Amino acid sequence: MSATVKGKILLIEDDIALRSVYVDAIAADGYTVVTAEDGEQGLAMVKTEKPDVVLLDLILPKLPGFEVLKSIRADAGTKNIIILIMSMLEEQRHIQKAMELGANGYAVKGSTTPREVLGKIAALLTQPGVKEHIKEQVKVYNLFIKKNRGDADKLQNDTGSTGLFTCKDCREEMLLVITLDYSRSDAHWFSAHFACPKCGKKF
């Protein structure tokens, strides 16, 4: 296992049993994983460990997760770290608040499996601005779709794409970006979106 290649994950979680489950799952998927059991310790470790992704609980001892989130985003040295909330709070107001404070994603405990969380992490690590040596380890494939091949015409019509899947803004031929979906284990499943290789816009 190449633990340092895929990136470092900081898990801020006070539940010992849940922390153990996620440590095992994250490490088995090839990441370095470090943990904190309360908000104050977690915030300190964000600065010392410099993780690529923070998995953040919202209900934490000493310092609530919302405060940790705000502090990370307010610090110039940590503001760009990817933050995935993992919480029992499932009401829309909590999710909206977390996203407004700068979370990159949200997973509800009990409704999201460790494999699904790994899928969310992998997807977040493919976003613009992520270190290239990490992004290269996430299973992402960039494909061009050729007209008159299979259902290319139908796909173009259904997605509203024009001119052989070209970008509406700069007219560059778009890529179909597919990412391995780690939430499924019964086969190779993928999530996909179109992206312009020139201007970077997604469709």
How big a fraction of the residues is strand?
15-25%
Number of domains: 2
The CATH class assignment of the largest domain is Alpha Beta
Estimated structural class = alpha/beta
Look at the structure and give the mean pLDDT: 80
Helix content: 25-40%
Spatial ordering of strands, largest sheet: 2-1-3-4-5
What is the second-level CATH architecture of the largest domain?
3-Layer(aba) Sandwich
| Count of DSSP-assigned helices | 7
CATH homologous superfamily assignment of the largest domain:
Response regulator
Protein topology:
Elements: E1 8-12, H1 16-28, E2 32-36, H2 39-49, E3 53-56, H3 65-74, E4 82-87, H4 92-100, E5 105-108, H5 114-124, H6 132-135, E6 140-143, H7 152-159, E7 175-180, E8 190-195
Parallel strand pairs: 1-2, 1-3, 3-4, 4-5
Antiparallel strand pairs: 6-7, 7-8
Molecular structure report:
The chain is 33% helix and 20% strand. It is built from 7 helices and 8 strands, in the order E-H-E-H-E-H-E-H-E-H-H-E-H-E-E. It has helices spanning 16-28, 39-49, 65-74, 92-100, 114-124, 132-135, 152-159; strands spanning 8-12, 32-36, 53-56, 82-87, 105-108, 140-143, 175-180, 190-195. Strand 1, helix 1 (16-28) and strand 2 (32-36) form a beta-alpha-beta unit. Helix 2 (39-49) packs parallel to helix 3. Residues 132-137 have low confidence and may be disordered.
